[in-house]
Amino acid sequence: MALSLGFHIIFAEIGIAMPLLMVLAEWRWRRSGDPIFLQLARRWAKGTAILFAVGAVSGTVLSFELGLLWPSFMKLAGPVIGIPFALEGFAFFTEAIFLGVYLYGWDRVSARAHTLAGVIVAMSGAASALFVVIVNAWMNTPTGVIVEAGRFSAIDPLAAMRNPSTFQQVVHMLLAAYASTGIGVAGIHAAVLVRGRSANRLFHQRAMLLALTIAIPAALLQPVSGDTSARAVARWQPIKLAALESQFVTERGAPLRVGGIPDEDAHIARYAVEIPRGLSVLAFRDPDAEIKGLTAFPRDQWPPVAPVHIAFQLMVMLGTAMALVCAWAALMLVRGRDVAQHPRLLAAIALLTPAGFIATEAGWVVTEVGRQPWIIGGIMRTADAVTPMPGLSVPMVVFALIYVGLGGIVAVSIASLVRETT
Amino acid sequence: MIGLPEVIAGVIAVALNAYVLTGGADFGGGVWDLLATGVRRERQRALIADSIAPIWEANHVWLIVVVVVLFTAFPEAFSTLGTVLHIPLAIMLIGIVLRGSAFVFRAYGPHGRNRWGLAFASASVITPVLLGSIIGSVATGAVADAAARIGGAVDFFDVFVRPWAAPFPTAIGLLALALFSFLAATYLTVDAREEDLREDFRIRALGAAGGVFVCAAVALVLAHSAAPRVAIGVVEALLVQVATAAAAVSAIAALWLRHYRLARIAAAAQVSLILWGWLLAQYPYVIPPALTIREAAAPAVTLRLLTIGLAAGAAILLPSLRYMLRTFKY
């Protein structure tokens, strides 16, 4: 399941942001009449088609896997969090219908209807993300139920949707989608530009700049959203905060640990750089605030500290790098300089092509592994939710192989799409 | 008595019906891709691809609607199905993944088209068979039986394999395959622009109709011992049976006389009536003979909200679908 999700999340991100790019390109074309933008819109639409189809089938797998792998979870949680899933189904439906219209309707519908179809695809992609992330937020900080002897009573699905993590997680995920995809696309074109021997330079220049227009605001806002998310985690999921910051003992004026490898038995993080009082300031805006350490909680409620801490460091590091490079590019653009003629900036953007996606995976590890051992925070343990069917490693391996294969083919397909234009 | 649980069960049935008529026919298209023969082989394949390319992803979402509404409104049924039928569901998923991705890779990707075509076509055969056997195994009552035994000393084969790997579910699986192929060929007679291609699919549709008849007869014979409750229900619902037979005869007659649009309507009606015949025979059970619609239903507040959500969703969905079909199919 984690595997399917880890695979799906990348395609979902691209599925959210790519339609926006393609429709922006079409819009620019209709405004300017510049055929390069039309070429770009069609090219991006092709890429979107491949990625959406794979995203759609991997999403289908997920909806079934909820039952295949976590039947007890679904039995308990279905009535509470099924509504956002059902709404997501409709958002997905709309996305699929209008993507079909967009891809195959260039000559069949009017210009306005075509652009509008693209806009609907972009919007329903974002709506899907909203609904799915609501479910995940609920798993982190469940509300809207009263638990009595393993059964839910007083179920209130609307209250569940408004749980305290929803807002931060949704914003963080959407910004991640726009930043990762924007930089990913800009990076691919920057890589072509930096090598400098493309016959189609103008095409790649336009493509990169357009991708940067969505990447820059998203990447610059993301650290702000990250900060609010972390403060929400500090308030509602103190164990998770302790794990991601490697805070083993409860202390006032806790330092911020940068890097380092946590040692769960020795209760320390080795090789970490500590910024005094940094964590207390960040989490509670108070240099003397008390941060609960892991040892304040029973050992059997700890998440695996090392992966969570390391993934968190990786996510923050990549997010910072993306924000810095985007700030650099924004500065250049504001000054009216030609970004496409700046080899060092181009190289930096090209280098960051996969950064957003790696950061997304790391962020996924932070929120999911950080919630362990619970599948529903504080209510149901993951081990109690898994299916009683033996031999689960067989389907795991099979799906893993399929995903690896699909990922490879998608990469080759996209690469050949890019190569066609160089 | 009809209340919200029954209404939502009805919505699931309608969505399943829509999936069978649209997504099912897309699988049938894959079967004809696999069986494409003669001098017009490549043109047949091109027609199939053009016919399903713009709409298959939307068609596919019906299945997702079935799943999400099922787990929201009838969590216990979903949980039981997911546990006992883990293996066929997982294989069906693999089929769905391969079918969908092979189809886009064939359209947009690198490498030889043929290899993707083969993956697309063979996945199109496997998936309907499993979908049918899943339905068949629920109807026999074996799923409920197996679910009851989990928790004790469990024999893996008895609980996780036997309920679906049995003659009756397999017969239903083959019936589903024949029905989907029949639907696809009938639809393609309408979509074809050239007379020779249209004739190809007319012959195929008539052949598939024969296949449907054989599979249905075998399934009915097996049903008496394997799924007596459902078999009796199906036979007793005389009106549905008469209507199904009338639709089947009309579809074949219309194909014979080359009234293709009429054939399309009659074929769709025939397939829908078969589905509803099963659903009505099984009513009021979700998983016979253990779990009724009422017993499996989620709390009232969830059902109320879900109904509002479904109504709102339908208000957006139905005009969009209409727009899509008008754009591509008429």
Strand order of the largest sheet of chain A: 1-2
What is the strand tally of chain B? Answer: 2
Sheet with most strands of chain B? 2 strands, antiparallel
Give the strand content of chain A: 5-15%
Describe this structure in words.
The complex is a heterodimer of chains A (422) and B (330). In chain A, helix 2 runs antiparallel to helix 14 (393-421) and helix 4 (111-140) crosses helix 6. By secondary structure, chain A is mainly alpha-helical. In chain A, strand 5 (261-263) and strand 6 (268-270) form a beta hairpin. Chain A has a domain at 1-140 and 392-422. The longest helix of chain A has 36 residues, at 201-236. Chain A has helices at 2-32, 35-69, 71-104, 111-140, 157-161, 166-195, 201-236, 238-244, 278-284, 305-334, 343-351, 355-369, 382-385, 393-421, and strands at residues 146-148, 151-153, 251-252, 256-258, 261-263, 268-270, 273-275, 290-291, 374-376, 380-381. Chain A is globular, with a radius of gyration of 22 Å. Chain B has 330 residues and is mainly α. Chain B has one domain (4-329). A two-stranded antiparallel sheet of chain B has the order 1-2. In chain B, a hairpin with a 3-residue loop joins strand 1 and strand 2 (291-292). In chain B, helix 1 (4-34) runs antiparallel to helix 3. Chain B is globular, with a radius of gyration of 20 Å. Chain B starts with a helix and ends with a helix. In chain B, 58% of the residues are buried. At the A-B interface, helix 2, helix 3 and helix 14 of A face helix 3, helix 4, helix 5 and helix 15 of B.
